[in-house]
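User: Hi! I have a protein structure encoded as tokens and I'd like to know what sequence might fold into it. I'm fairly new to this, so please keep things simple.
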């Protein structure tokens, strides 16, 4: 009796273990199958993404080159009709030329009513006189932060380097009015990375004054100004003069060669 019970117990345990192993084997097989499907899906997605990227890249190239892919049937019909269209265009152009020839007057000149564009106005500075003994008024009143020096290098604090200085830097608070140092003509207005907004004033006899670090410029190119006229206002300093602070950049040239403005300014 006992032996039969033990056999039943052993058989039941064996059955349980077999079921357990079967379940484990099924779980492993299911995991492997799932991973293989996932890998295939990833591979297919990568291929489709790559194809989409290639199509997008080709579209960008076509957009850059102006190329447009056409249907072969459309291209054939366009080719067949191209000869006749081109012939019609040539005839139309010939007719236009003939009509234009008939519009000429007896002197052989065209009767076109369009007027030629006026030539660019030339800025004249012949009436300006600035002799070597002439003096300049100070555009702003302030301390000289950096002097002119083309013989030796000068230290630029913001740039942390030594180099020649072809102009002088005058301390002036932002918003300070900048006045014309002499009678002259505004020949140039522009923007420079180092000195910001600037204008160039031709004062005659080969002398020109360049002023930078400006804002709200009140004059335009070609305008003649008198000594003391308002030109602009001091702007916040550019990144090349942030340590020096608010200032006016002043440069004086004689026939294109920088000279020391301090030698011409009134005291």
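Assistant: Happy to help. Inverse folding works backwards from shape to sequence: for each of the 267 positions I chose a residue that suits the local structure. Here it is:
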């Amino acid at each position: 009796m006992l032996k039969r019970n033990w056999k039943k117990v052993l058989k039941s345990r064996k059955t349980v273990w077999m079921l357990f192993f079967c379940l484990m084997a099924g779980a492993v097989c299911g995991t492997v199958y799932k991973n293989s499907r996932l890998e295939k899906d990833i591979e297919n997605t990568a291929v489709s993404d790559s194809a989409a990227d290639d199509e997008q890249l080709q579209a960008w190239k076509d957009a850059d080159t102006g190329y447009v892919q056409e249907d072969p049937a459309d291209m054939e019909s366009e080719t067949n009709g191209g000869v006749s269209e081109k012939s019609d265009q040539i005839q139309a152009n010939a007719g236009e030329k003939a009509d234009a020839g008939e519009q000429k007057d007896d002197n052989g000149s065209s009767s076109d009513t369009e007027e030629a564009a006026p030539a660019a106005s030339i800025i004249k500075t012949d009436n300006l006189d600035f002799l070597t003994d002439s003096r300049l008024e100070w555009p702003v009143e302030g301390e000289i932060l950096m002097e002119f020096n083309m013989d030796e290098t000068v230290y630029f604090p913001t740039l942390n380097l030594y180099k020649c200085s072809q102009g002088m830097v005058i301390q002036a608070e932002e918003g300070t009015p900048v006045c014309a140092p002499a009678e002259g003509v505004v020949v140039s207005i522009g923007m420079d990375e180092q000195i910001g907004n600037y204008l160039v004033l031709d004062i005659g006899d080969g002398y020109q004054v360049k002023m930078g670090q400006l804002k709200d410029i009140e004059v335009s190119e070609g305008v003649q100004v008198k000594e003391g006229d308002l030109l602009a206002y001091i702007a916040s300093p550019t990144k090349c003069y942030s340590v020096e602070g608010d200032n006016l950049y002043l440069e004086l040239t004689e026939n294109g060669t920088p000279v020391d403005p301090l030698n011409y300014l009134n005291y």
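A useful reference point when you look it over: Residues 58 and 64 are 10 Å apart (CA to CA). Feel free to ask if any position seems puzzling.
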